[in-house]
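Can't paste images in this forum, so I'm doing it all in text. The chain is below; anyone willing to post the predicted structure tokens underneath?
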Amino acid sequence: MIKITGIIENSPAYRTQKISIGDFLISINGHKINDVLDYMYYSADNQISLTVSRDGKEFTVNLEKSEYDDLGIESGSFLMDKKRTCRNKCVFCFIDQMPKGMRETLYFKDDDARLSFLQGNYVTLTNLEQPDIDRIISMKLNINVSVHTTNPELRCKMMNNRFAGEKLKYLKQMTDSGIKLNCQIVLCPELNDGEELKRTLSDLGELMPNISSIAVVPVGLSKFREGLYPLKCFDKDSAGEALDIISEFQNKFLENYGTRLVFPSDEFFLIAERKIPGSDYYEDFAQYENGVGMLRSLEDEFMQALECSDYDNQNRKISIATGYSAYNTIKKLAGLAEKKYSGLKCELYSIRNDFFGETITVSGLITATDILKQLENKNLGTELLISSSMLRRDTDVFLDDLTVSDVENRLNVKIIPVENDGFALLDAILGISL
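Text version of the structure:
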């Protein structure tokens, strides 16, 4: 049951005038309600019978609504329940590589299948039991799974969880029942790459057609790894070898299933010093949020925007701060904008990640402290553009808890956070308000 902490005005629950804040929702149409998935799934009908408890006494509330309309009941948290935390201690976990003293929420490890369905989070399956899988199947919930390897013994080792290997059985159960899975492999040199990567891709291919996509991303290692499992970063040769294995399987999958299915993240191409493929390579960009095809998408969108842009050719000088991984792409795009608009001047700065270590090159892990240290006393023009990924979602707060205002005041320049979107980037470069 869930405690009712709010009722949305003019909602079906509100209009009954029979439900109050503080009541407990026990069931919907005879089905017990434990969390938001139960609530959403069983309240989809237009004829609804609620069992509600008040002061220990149960009563029934019947109502009608449009099919799939929300009842209007709120319960404390988004999940209407506590988040499920991760039971693993993966050898590559980035949270374990963060220093002490950062805000508490940064250390929370979620491993919740409900968030996988609702928000696209990845789950390892290690804290799921058979009834959880049965519910996923009955509700037809397509989810995202962190697989990493299909070798049971190696999976136990990588996740430091003795149950991690046996949970692989759930992959087949779900795909055999028609559940669509997006999969993820965090690749670690000399651990789950090479022949182990071939095994994993081969095993996942056997679950087709219900594997929607597979992302392969390189392990990220911060400088805070004292006492942790000894891992090393990919270099040009090992990244190239991984790309070659992925390409081999892409060709097989394309021939057998009409899709490349498995996609390496942009970092592999950058580390291997290979050209980012064209947009056709990424098909429907299913693993975009995993850093797969982000640079290609950004460039293609920017070129489209630049082709049709009409800008008042006034003098404008700005600066852009980005991580090493995106620097060359953004520098190229800013140069094309300068070429088209002679009054435009863009100064690019690649921010070295001193906070986490130089091997961390993505913009999303850049701190305000590093920006301040490296840009203080620079002539930054009228505005400094940064990636919005540097900020906590829907806030103006950096990883190190400094705010956009803090940085603006120190650098004496207006900061413009920009989404990873080529159209938004060009608008920000040109000073066009959305």
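The chain has three domains: 2-74, 95-289, 298-430. DSSP finds 14 helices and 16 strands in the chain.
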